[in-house]
Amino acid sequence: MRVLVPLDGSDPSWTALEYALEQHPDEDIIVMHVVNPVAGLYSGEGFSDYEQLISAGEERAERLFDEARETATEASVAIDTETRIGNPTEMILECVEDLDIDQIVIGSHGRSGVSRVLLGSVAEAVIRRSSVPVTIVR
């Protein structure tokens, strides 16, 4: 079985990773991060150049993956990583098809404030549109 864990750095996404490591230690776990340039424009981080947004997002993904690998190593579980650029919901669903995913384990929410209003709830959209089972972790 292949389990996809979207990781955005929020507490719920880390909890989802820990849950996946505990519940699926013998499965293939793919930790993914989506670089969303549109969210970067509204983040208040001062980026206005598309390439700068992508580069900063990819660097953040690598930092998250380093921490995820440490967490997985502590649990004696191997993980793979995947970075995508685009709309988080679309990229998660695309990964399901591209990587032959059997289950998604996702945090209940990751964003708050203005970006959540603008982008909607990724977890909710994934639940509604996923072709595979989704476990929501709080």
Note down, in words, how this protein is organized:
- The chain has 138 residues and is an alpha/beta fold.
- It has one domain (2-137): HUPs (Rossmann fold).
- The chain contains six helices and five strands; from the N terminus they run βαβααβαβααβ.
- It has a five-stranded parallel beta sheet, sandwiched between helices.
- Helix 4 runs parallel beside helix 6 (122-129).
- It is globular and about 40 Å long.
- The mean pLDDT is 89.
Order of SSEs: EHEHHEHEHHE
Low-confidence stretches: none
Output the radius of gyration: 14 Å
CATH class: Alpha Beta
Structural class computed from helices and strand pairing: alpha/beta
Give me the oligomer status.
single chain
Q: How much of the residues is beta strand, in percent?
A: 15-25%
Shape by Cα distribution: globular
Helix content: 40-55%
State the strand order across the main sheet: 3-2-1-4-5
CATH topology: Rossmann fold
Q: Indicate the CATH architecture.
A: 3-Layer(aba) Sandwich
Give the integer mean of the pLDDT values.
Answer: 89
What is the total domain count? 1
Main sheet? 5 strands, parallel
**What is the number of strand segments?**
5
- Which superfamily, in CATH terms, is the homologous superfamily? HUPs
Number of H/I helices? 6
N- and C-termini, Cα separation: 23 Å
Entry summary:
The chain has six helices and five strands, in the order E-H-E-H-H-E-H-E-H-H-E. The chain has 138 residues and is α/β, with parallel strands linked by helices.
